[in-house]
Automatic annotation (TrEMBL):
<keyword id="KW-0732">Signal</keyword>
<feature type="domain" description="PA">
    <location>
        <begin position="43"/>
        <end position="127"/>
    </location>
</feature>
<comment type="function">
    <text>Plays a role in the modulation of physical activity and adiposity.</text>
</comment>
<dbReference type="GO" id="GO:0005576">
    <property type="term" value="C:extracellular region"/>
</dbReference>
<keyword id="KW-0325">Glycoprotein</keyword>
<dbReference type="InterPro" id="IPR037323">
    <property type="entry name" value="PRADC1-like_PA"/>
</dbReference>
<dbReference type="InterPro" id="IPR003137">
    <property type="entry name" value="PA_domain"/>
</dbReference>
<dbReference type="Pfam" id="PF02225">
    <property type="entry name" value="PA"/>
</dbReference>
<keyword id="KW-0964">Secreted</keyword>
<dbReference type="InterPro" id="IPR046450">
    <property type="entry name" value="PA_dom_sf"/>
</dbReference>
<protein>
    <recommendedName>
        <fullName>Protease-associated domain-containing protein 1</fullName>
    </recommendedName>
</protein>
C-alpha cells in the first residue's frame, strides 16, 4: 500500500553536538524498507553531494548509509547510485537549507527503474546541520542508529534538534 505520512526516526550518536533524534519520511513508491535495525552505522555524506553519477567517496558508502542532497537528478536516480555503490540506504536532504518543516513526497520518476534500498527524505535544515557539524569536526561521517522506535522513549527524553518544531 501507499506509505503516506509515515515517519522513520534515526539518532545521531556522533558527533556529540548533533546527538539528536531526526525525523525522515520514506519514499512513497520506490525503494526498500528497513528489515534490520542498525545500532551503529556510518552516515556518509556523498561526494559530490547530489550523487547523480560516479562518487568520489563511493568506497566509504559500501555497507553504510549515504547522506545525499536534493537536486540535479531524480530521487530514484540518487537512490540507484547509492545502491550501485553498495549503500544499505540513502537519506536525501532537501537542498533548501532553511526548510525545517515541509516534507517532500519522493515519488518514482518516469523511467520504470526500481531501487531495492530504503530511501528517506530529510528536512533541509537537518541535513545542513549534520553536514556542518561533520565539516566543523573534520569528520568523514556521522555514526547513527536507524530506525529508532520513538514510541518507547518518554517525550521528555526525546533529544530532538533544537531548531526543529515538533
Amino acid at each position: 500500500g501507499l506509505r503516506i505520512h509515515e515517519y522513520l526516526y534515526f539518532q545521531v550518536l556522533s558527533p556529540g553536538d548533533i546527538r539528536y533524534i531526526f525525523t525522515a519520511t520514506p519514499a512513497k513508491d520506490f525503494g526498500g524498507v528497513f528489515n534490520t535495525r542498525y545500532d551503529q552505522i556510518h552516515l556518509v555524506p556523498a561526494d559530490p553531494p547530489e550523487a547523480c553519477g560516479e562518487l568520489n567517496n563511493g568506497v566509504f558508502i559500501q555497507d553504510q548509509i549515504a547522506l545525499v542532497e536534493r537536486g540535479g537528478c531524480s530521487f530514484l536516480s540518487k537512490t540507484r547510485v547509492i545502491q550501485e555503490h553498495g549503500g544499505r540506504a540513502v537519506i536525501i536532504a532537501d537542498n533548501a537549507y532553511d526548510n525545517d518543516s515541509f516534507y517532500i513526497e519522493m515519488i518514482q520518476d518516469s523511467t520504470r527503474r526500481t531501487a531495492d534500498i530504503p530511501a528517506l527524505f530529510l528536512l533541509g535544515r537537518d541535513g545542513y546541520m549534520i553536514r556542518r557539524s561533520l565539516e566543523q569536526h573534520g569528520l568523514p561521517w556521522a555514526i547513527i542508529s536507524i530506525p529508532v522506535n520513538v514510541t518507547s522513549i518518554p517525550t521528555y527524553e526525546m533529544m530532538q534538534p533544537p531548531w526543529t518544531f515538533w
